[in-house]
Amino acid sequence: MDREALYRDPYPVYARARAAPGLTFSDELDAWLVARYADVREVLSRPGDFSSQGALRPDVLPGPRAVAELASAPGGAPVVLSTDGAAHARYRKPLTRGLSPARVTAALPFVRATAADLIASFARAGQAEWMAAYARPLPAAVIGHLLGLDPADVPGAVRAGHRAEELLFTPMPEDEQVAAAREVAALRHLLDRHARASPAEDTLAGDLARALTDRNEIVSNTENLLLAGHLTTTALLGTVVHHLLRDRRQWELLCARPGLAPAAVEEAARYEAPVQGFRRTVTRPLTLSGTKLAAGETVFVSFGSAGRDATVFDRPDTFDITREPVRHLSFGHGVHGCPGALLAREQITITLELLVRELPGLRLAGEDVTMAATLIHRAPERLHLAW
Questions:
Q1: Cβ contacts of 175 within 8 Å, gap of 6 or more
Q2: How far apart are CA 115 and CA 285, in angstroms?
Q3: Angle of helix 101-123 versus helix 341-358 axis, rounded to 10
Q4: Do the beta carbons of residue 245 and residue 346 sit within 8 Å?
Q5: What pLDDT score does 49 carry?
Q6: CA 234 to chain centre
Q7: How confident is the model at residue 201 (pLDDT cuts 50, 70, 90)?
Q8: How far is residue 102's CA from residue 297's CA, in Å, rounded to a whole number?
Q9: How far apart are alpha carbons 75 and 216 in whole angstroms?
Q10: What DSSP string runs through 182-222?
Q11: Which residues, 6+ apart, have CB-to-CB distance to 102 below 8 Å?
Q12: How far, in Å, are 74, 159, 182, 261, 276 from residue 187 at the CA level?
């Protein structure tokens, strides 16, 4: 199997890895695949033995011209996702404050108004491509709002964030790399200007600017937050609607019982983890699930596989919004648990409540759904809907 095939449908590989004794080495990932729920939870619970450095190792290294473009802008510092210990705690503290339940609650009127406006913008058309019309714009607008960005700057900033991802995970000709790097550099200059203007503001950008004094750290962690702050939610907005409509009974059940919206969010996260997993680096010789690992070896901790573990979840390959709740690991666990999980849950719950009220006749339209070739944000490339 090549890497793209794995990225588009990793579940058969996960199933074989869960059934095999010990850990399975994946050539495509160049890492030991941690596939069982108990093993995933154990690794996430032992950050001292499994370092987060290199959590998002790139698939592609940009060429020297692209690197030179990036070097022209501030940034390039470590971020919360890929640090350990005191550095991780320092980077995480302003995120925990900025994404606290009180801050999320305060943002909900903006979320509801934006969600309603987006749905109203296409409701009369009778059809829409969901990812472009709603699943990408809503989380982008929300994270831009929380950061305190000018709304006019948000679409370009989000696009540049995607270009940053493409630079590291999508093979491109050199000229295209350079063009992408220029967009990323422009984003970093924008975030730098915004950070220097916002230390006194009660925003996420203000929290980061006050907590981190180094210019490169502020820019890097704001850029990381901008991308992470909407990718996970965009992915879940795609997969929850896809799976609710793929089995019409699930959609009709939600329409009849709108109070199941939060359960539908959790089931979507379990069934199709938006971030399929992260790498960890072994820090000392140890044994995991009967497999001996040397210091410096890499494991891929699969949240997506953990959510399909039959020892934990009954009928794990069935999407069922009435499932008895069992804690999934799709938002991580332990010190690296996703600080934006509550915000993501609220956006998707609000969306489902709006959809069942405004567009109860919603259905999938036309072509088969193709999943994006990435494990970072598992979502449909396009999702055509009609009503």
A1: none
A2: 50
A3: 30
A4: no
A5: 98
A6: 8
A7: confident
A8: 40
A9: 4
A10: HHHHHHHHHHHHHHHH-TTSSSHHHHHHHH---HHHHHHHH
A11: none
A12: 10, 9, 9, 35, 27
**pLDDT-derived band at 114, boundaries 50, 70, 90:** very high
Quote the CA–CA distance of 26 and 343 in Å, as a whole number. Answer: 33
Token couple for 383: 């999702």
Longest CA pairwise span in the chain (Å):
61
Q: How far apart are CA 25 and CA 23, in angstroms?
A: 7
Question: What does the H/E/C string look like for 68-83?
Answer: HHHHCCCCCCCCHHHC
Could you report how far apart the first and last alpha carbons of the chain are, in Å? 38
Q: Are strands 363-364 and 384-386 parallel, antiparallel or unpaired?
A: antiparallel
Instruction: Tell me the C-alpha distance between 135 and 352, whole Å.
Output: 12
- pLDDT at site 47: 97
Phi, then psi, of 364 in degrees rounded to 5: -70, 145
3-class DSSP assignment, residue 7: helix
Q: How many residues does the chain have?
A: 387
**Which pair of structure tokens corresponds to residue 201?**
């503001």
Strands 277-282 and 50-51: antiparallel
In angstroms, the CA 79 to CA 331 distance is 18
The C-alpha torsion from 277 through 15 and 243 to 115, rounded to 10°, is -10
* Dist. CA 244–CA 257, nearest whole Å: 13
Which structure tokens are listed for 280? 């960890």
Note whether 333 and 44 are within 8 A (CB): yes
Contact 378, 10 (CB under 8 A): no
Dist. CA 342–CA 104, nearest whole Å: 7
Whether the predicted model's global pTM rises above the 0.90 cut: yes
Interatomic CA distance for residues 96 and 92, integer angstroms: 6
Cβ within 8 Å of residue 292, ≥6 positions away: 285, 286
